[in-house]
Amino acid sequence: MSLKNRHLFGLKDYPKKDIESILDLAFKFREVLDRPIKKVPSLNGLTVVNLFFENSTRTRISFELAQKRLSCDTVNFSASSSSLKKGESFKDTAQNIEAMKIDAVVIRHPSPGAPKTLSKFIKSIIINAGDGTHEHPTQAILDMMSLKEKFGFLKGLKIGIIGDILHSRVALSNIYGLKTMGAEITLCGPPNLIPEFLKDLGVNINYDVDEVIDWADALNVLRIQRERMGIGLVPSVREYRNFFGINQKRIEKHKKDIVIMHPGPINRGVEIDSAVADGQNAIILDQVLNGVASRMAILFLLCGGKK
What we know:
CATH architecture of the largest domain: 3-Layer(aba) Sandwich
Shape: globular
Number of helices: 11
CATH class of the largest domain: Alpha Beta
Radius of gyration: 19 Å
CATH topology of the largest domain: Rossmann fold
Number of domains: 2
Low-confidence stretches: none
Mean pLDDT: 92
Structural class: alpha/beta
């Protein structure tokens, strides 16, 4: 198996066949993760650098575990303790790292388009682990895997994405990926946090969270970023919670089983209550495990792994 594109920058215009290949292989690697010995020699001898210019817990650990499960060598880079602090450029940092004979780079960067810019400086395979408010393709792939695991299919599924859509790279990648796979999407959140142009991508916009719950098969609940509240994007935590928060009372009112997802980190008591996040309808921890399996599949297919 191989993918059409050499790098994974994002899911915009990403081939449906390639998403299917990643998902199919991810489920096979999920079986590996359930074994007593959770390791295969598929990428033995390859070196992958995790180039993170932003703080991360889940994504960074998930990629590192995926690399180790595939038996490749892993090097972690942290911008806060690098020569960037001494004035070294992004280009020089990347080229110096590649000169040490690496095979692939997983990059997270606060600037949209950074992974594609990196491809102009180095020849290694590049995987986007989140670039600013642009895309987070591997999160969307693990979300699709989790939905397929739960429902058995993606085509025709009704997915409500709730929260800060404006600043969410998770939302944009999910829109691209889920639309490609034939799912229906409704965005919900404060009007000033949902760009109107997203309608051009074939999604619905609804500002009534209860109507979205009635309609949806699953909700992907996004974090409201508290650090942004100081600039008035959301009047208050209490107001956001009252209008858009997903709580047990709101779910029970609709008398339906609805799957609950969240990419993390969770602001408990803000966008989602603990009773919902820890409830039987939540597949949040399944998403975390599927993140390792799906990233194993992506690394395997891009780096030319052997079965």
